[in-house]
């Protein structure tokens, strides 16, 4: 269980650190460090809320037996978090467009209170989501004894490793130019949001709340393809593949764990998971392209208007 606890806390903590770290780095880059303490406060409150969820899950909801009913909470958090991420992506793209002119004129870019509050709330929600998922996973590997999993050395080492890797990642971003930083971060957040939506759809299908246009002869939800030979979603899937085929996949299951958590990777997606993932990506990318086009047109029109007025 120690290894499983390590993988769980490392994955969940690292994902939360990435998102919160992106928000903090963003605020530093635009000179709005006064909001960082509120972002960190939101994160701290989420940690406390996650602990409360674990306590309620352990004592009131009878632990492992209640996991199925608590999936509704997970679905809601996944969808809301994906929505907030999408809003943040669009917000950052607008700020990036305005920032270019602001930097050239040596004026500081002002962050609106509404935008800052959105970041604070999102830092709370994304941390709470990871905390709740950790509770679910710990209940699963310990048969409902969450405290036993939390007290294992694997859980602590996972958190330490996540913070260490997060420190390395964000130290390296200091050398990235501002424009490139925002484009890269925006694209990464877009992939994360798409992955969250797909995870929610997968849970809905697992619970048989929604079906699929493609099912097997036995009535089970069918899959478009199976990439277990290339990259299993989890070390358990890797072990099953080895047992079934006698061969090892090209990439280890530990990599699949992170790709699934961060990018919504699925070794065998349903038709709905596949379509919704790409539909979301193309839709948001189209909106961003449209916003960039309008911003460019406004920039070109501004000098012409000034000349005409003169």
Automatic annotation (TrEMBL):
Protein location: Membrane
InterPro entries assigned to the protein according to its UniProt record, in alphabetical order: FTR1/Fip1/EfeU
Pfam families assigned: FTR1
Membrane topology note: Multi-pass membrane protein
Family: Belongs to the oxidase-dependent Fe transporter (OFeT) (TC 9.A.10.1) family.
Designated name of the protein: Iron permease
Keyword vocabulary terms for this entry: Membrane, Transmembrane, Transmembrane helix
Taxonomic lineage from the root: Bacteria, Bacillati, Bacillota, Bacilli, Bacillales
Any single GO CC term annotated in Swiss-Prot or TrEMBL for this entry: high-affinity iron permease complex
Domain of life: Bacteria
Segments traversing the membrane: 6-27, 39-66, 72-91, 107-129, 149-170, 182-204, 274-290
UniProt-recorded Gene Ontology molecular function terms: ferrous iron transmembrane transporter activity
Major location category of this protein: membrane
Listed PANTHER family: IRON TRANSPORTER FTH1, PLASMA MEMBRANE IRON PERMEASE
